[in-house]
Amino acid sequence: MPVMMAKEQDNFMAGIRHALNLPLRTRCAELTVLLDRGNLLELHSFFPILIENIFGSQGSISWGLRSTTESESEDFRQLHHFLSPCGPVFKLIYTLLKDPNIRYEFPLGCLPLKIRQFLENSQMHPFYSELVHCNSQTKQIVSLMLNSFDYYMFHFAYHLINPWQQRAGSTLSSWNTVYYLLCCDYIIHFLPVDPAVTVLPQIYYNGKNPLQVAKANLLEHPQNSGLISGKISQSKDDSFQNNLDIHHPRNDIWRSETVLTVFTDMWLYNNQVIDNRSNISSFNNPAMAPSASRFLQHNELPTGEYMRIVRVLIKQLHAFYASAKADDTHLGELKKISVPMIQGKFYTFIRNLIHRWPLDGSFRLVLELWLTYIQPWRYPPNNLIKQVNKKEVNPDLEDISMAPQQEVDPEFIPFIAENLLAYVVIFQQLLPRFCRVDLVSPKMSLMLYRITKNFGKIPRNAKLNSTQVFDQPNLPKYLREIEQCVDNNSSPTHKYNNHWVNTLPPLSPTSNWSVNVSHNRSTGNVSTDFASSQSRSGPNATSFLTSIRVPADKKWAPVIRQKIFDLEGPNFCYKSLFTNPPVAEVYDLIYLIKKSISQAEEIVRAKERDEQEMFSGIWGSVKYFFKGIDTNDEFTLKDRQKVPLHLQVALQNLADMFNIHNEVQRDSEPSSFVSNAVSPCSDFLTPERVRARIKNIRYEGDPDLHPIQSHENTFLVRTLYQIALKINEIYGPTFYQLYHSQSFVGRLSREILCPPITIYRYDKSTPGSPRLSSNLPPRLSLRFMASYSFLSYLILGAFLAWIFGYRIEVYFTFLIAVYVTYKCLRALRGRETPVRHNYPTQGFGNISFNDSF
C-alpha cells in the first residue's frame, strides 16, 4: 500500500510539472483538473511550489500578473478565473484549511523593515503573535508559520513590492492588469460593506481561535492591538477556552482580518517609500546570492499601478468603516477599527512619497491618493467600490470633472481631528512645491486646482459649463476650530517606544510653517530636544512636551497632541495653517499664479493666432486635412485654454481659504518672493529661467540622428537613414577622397555630400556626464526626402506627369537629370578654395557609421 501511494504521488507531481510548462492559457485549465484529483497530502506538498511559480518571490519567472492586460484576452481571462476569490486556487486553499496543523514558512526577509522591527519588540503584535516561529535555541524569530490562506495573501501582497517584479510593473503603461483586477476583487470580496453580505464560502476553521496566552497579551497591551481580536477577547471570555469544538466569533472575520492587516502592512510600510537610504535588496531573503543583491540595488518609485491599488484600498476602507454603524455582526467590530489602524501608516507613507516624488505630471497619482484619504465623505457605504468599473473607468480620468462640492457633515469632525496632520502638515508640504514647477503646464494647473478645490469656493463668474453650480465646503471652518485645540498646548506624559523610529522626511527649517527640527527621534535628554525645538520655533509654533493645562472646551487637544507625538516625534513644532496674516509661502504662490495666468493667456492667444494663420484659406484647409494640427506642443489648444481658468479658480480658492482678497487684487510683487527662503539663491531655477534656457538649447549631435520632427514621416526617416548608413559604410573612404579633391568632381561632391562637422554628446556612463566631441566625415544624407513638403511636391509632380501622359520612370529620370544639372552648374561656378576641416587626416580616427538610429 505505501508503494502504491508513493507511485500515485509521483504520477501527480509528474502531471503537475508537465502542466507548469504549458502555455498560460492551457496551464490554468490543466492545473484545475489536477487539483480536483489530488489528495490532501499531494496538495499539501504542491501548494508552496504553485505559489512560488505564480509569484516568483525569489526571482524566478512568475506568471506575469503585473504585465498581462485585457489586450491578451484569453490569458487575462484564464488567470483572473484561476485566482479569483472563488476560483480553483482558493478551492485548494480551503481544502488545505481542513487540517489546522498544515503550516507554511514565510521568510522574515520579505516583510517590510518596520514590521520586522515590531516583531522583535517584546510587545508582540496581536495578529502576528500566533504566526511567529522562533528558533528553539536562540529564541529569535526566524520566520512566520502560516496557514494556506495567510500564506497566499502574504505572497500576493508582497508581489506588488517585490524588487524582482518591480521592472515588470514599471515599464507597463496600462493600468488594467490581472494583478490590479485581482486586488480589487479581493478587497471587495473580503472587506464587504453590506452587513447582509458574508465572505464566501462560509467555512469553519478553528486554527485562528485565540488561546489563553493571546488573551493575556492583548489585555496587557491593548494599545498595540490593531485587530478586533482584542475587543472580542474582552467581551466574550468564554470563547477563549481551549476547546476546538466551540465556534468562536473570530471564525467569521479572520479572513477579512488577514486581508486588511497584510495589505496595509505590506503596502503602506514599504521600505522603498519609507526609507530610500536602505538597499532594496533588504526586502529579500538574506541568503540571496551576492550577484542578485547587486542587481536589486536600484531605487525606483512605486509604479502607477501601485498607487491606484492603494487608492482602491483606501476607498473601500472608508466605506467599510462607515458601514459599521449599521452592522451588528462580528465583522462590525473589525470595521470600527479599520480606518483608525491605518491612520499612522498612511500618514508616514504619503509624507515620504511627496518628499521623494519628482516635479512632473506623474505627481497627480500621489495627489489623488491623498485627496482620497482626506475625503471619506465621498465614499459612503451606499457608494460601493464596485461602482469603480475596472473595465470602463480609467483612474487617470477620475476626479477630473469639477463636480459641486458638498458640505462636510459634522459626523466627520472626529476623523478630521484624528487626522489633522494629514490635512495641515501635508498641505503645508504640498503648496510650496508648486512654487518650483511651471504652473502654465495644464497638468500642473489642474493639480493646483484639485488641491485648492477642497478648501475654497468657485467664483460664480468662472463656470466651466452652464449647468454646474459650486458651493463652498466647510472643511476650512472645521480645520480652524480643531487647530484652536492645539495652539499653546502640550502633550501629556507619553510612553515612548524606541523600536518605532521616526522615518519621516525633514520639513524645511526655513519654512514659515510646521518644522521638524530633528529627522529621527531620540531617546536621549528630552529637555535638550525641547530646548532645541523652542529655539527654532516662531511665535505661532507649538511645542508638545511642556505641561499646560487643557481648557475644558478643547476636547480634541489630547487626541491631537498624542497623534503628533506618535507620528512626528517630540521635536516637531506645529504651526497653524490659518495664521493671520498668512505665511509668506501663500503670498509667493499667489504671485506666481497671477504671473502664470498672464503667461497662459498669452500662450493661448499665440496658439489660436498660429492655427488661424496656418490653416486659413483653401491651401490651409488642404494642409489641415492631410497634416492636422501641429503636434510640437505636448498639449492641445483645448488643454491650454483650460489653464487660465484652473489658475483663476485656484487663486480665488486660496483667497477664500486665507481671507486675503485684498492682497489678491494687488499687482505688486510680494517682498517675500525676493527675500524669502523660497528663493534663497540667485541661481534658483524658476519656471521663467527654465523657459529661457529652453529657447537657447540647440542640438549638437549627428544631424541625421536629430529627433524626428512633426513635419517628417517617421518610417521614412528611419528607413532612409539605414540606407544612407549602408552607403556611407561602403563608400565612406571614396567620399572622403572625392570631397577633398580640387577637381571639378571634388566641387560636385561638395555640392552633394554633407560637409564634415564636429558633434558632441554626453557620456552618461561616467560620473558627471562629461561632454565629448567626435568628428563626422563627408557623407551622404537622404533625410530631406522624408519631409512631408518634399513628398507633397513629389506626388504633385507625379500627378501632373500622369495627366500629360508621361510614364513614372520618365518622370523620375527627368527629376534626377534636373538635380544633377543643377549641382553641376553650381560646381562650375565654385571657386578653387582649400577645404578646411578639424578631424584626423589619417584614416577616420574616431569616426563611426555604426551608431544605430
UniProtKB/TrEMBL annotation:
Organism: Phyllotreta striolata (Striped flea beetle)
InterPro entries per the UniProt record, alphabetical: Sphingomy_SMPD4
GO molecular function: sphingomyelin phosphodiesterase D activity
Pfam families: mit_SMPDase
Cited PANTHER family: SPHINGOMYELIN PHOSPHODIESTERASE 4 (PTHR12988)
Keywords for this protein: Membrane, Transmembrane, Transmembrane helix
GO term, biological process aspect, one: glycerophospholipid catabolic process
Main location: membrane
Chain coiled-coil ranges: none
Entry membrane topology: Single-pass membrane protein
Membrane spanning stretches: 780-804
Top-rank taxon: Eukaryota
Subcellular compartments: Membrane
Any Gene Ontology CC annotation: membrane
Name of the protein this chain belongs to: Sphingomyelin phosphodiesterase 4
